[in-house]
Amino acid sequence: MPRGLFITFEGLDGSGKTTQLQRLAATLTAQGQQVVTLRQPGTTALGDRIRGILLDSKSEAALGPISPLAELALMFADRAQAIAEVIEPALAAGAIVLCDRYTDSSEAYQGAGRELGSERVLALHRAICNGLQPDLTILLLPDLSTSLHRARRRNARNAQRQTERHGSDENRFEREGDAFYQRIHAAYEAIAAREPGRVAAIRDDAGIDAIETRIRSIIQTIVAERLTAVEV
User: What is the pLDDT of residues 195-213, one digit of tens each?
Assistant: First the structure.
C-alpha cells in the first residue's frame, strides 16, 4: 500500500488555520479519501493532558512558572506520542494526515517567541521525531495585527464559556505581548523562505472561502503528483 500524505497547517492563533484544516478534511473525505486529523498539542490521551498544562492560563498559578525549556520538552513529548500513536500508523495505512501545528510551531513559538533558538528546536526534532517532515505545510500568515485582533477577540469570548464547562481555558499564550508575536511572525517568514518546496505560504487576508479555494488548488496538485509517482 502506498504511504499516505502528511500535511500540516501552521500560523498564529487567529490566522484561520483550524477552520481551513476542517474544511479541507471535509472536502477530501467527500472525495473518498481516507483522512485523519489531529492537533498539537493534543489528540492522544497523553497529549490532551499536556495540552491542559501548556495552554491553560491557570496552570502556572497551580504549578509555578513553566520554564521555556520545560515548555519545549512537553511540546515534543506530545509530538512523539502523536507520531507513534496516530501519525505513523495512519501514513502506513495510506491515509492523508492533516495536523494542526507541528515542529514549525515549536520553532516559531519556543525557538523565536521564547528565544530558545531554532537549532535547539531542530535538534530535538531530529532526535525525537526521527526527522519526520510533512510532505506539505500550509502556512497562513495574514497581517500580524489582524491575527492578534481576531485571536484576542475570540479568546475573550470563549474564555468564560470554557472555564464554566471545563474548569480551564486555553489562553496562556494569549497573555503574551506584541513583541512575542512579532518574533513568531518573523520566524514563520524565515521558515517559509528556508523551505519553499515544503511550505506554501498564504500571506493575504482574503475571505475564508477564497483561502479555501487556494488551498484546494495546492492540495489537488500534490495529490495528483503523488498518484502519478505511484503509477510510475
Answer: 999 999 999 888 999 999 9
Q: Which of 215, 191, 2 is nearest to 103 (CA)?
A: 191
- Tell me the residue range of the domain where 173 lies: 5-231
- Residue whose entry in the numeric block shows the C-alpha cell 514563520: 188
3-state helix, strand, coil in the chain (%, to 5): 60, 10, 25
The radius of gyration of the chain's CA atoms, rounded to the nearest angstrom, is: 17
Residue 176, domain CATH: 3.40.50.300
pLDDT per residue as tens digits for the range 119-149? 999 999 999 999 899 999 999 998 888 778 7
77: left (phi over 0), alpha (psi -120 to 50) or beta: alpha
Order of all β-strands in the sheet with 96-100: 35-39, 96-100, 5-10, 136-140, 199-202
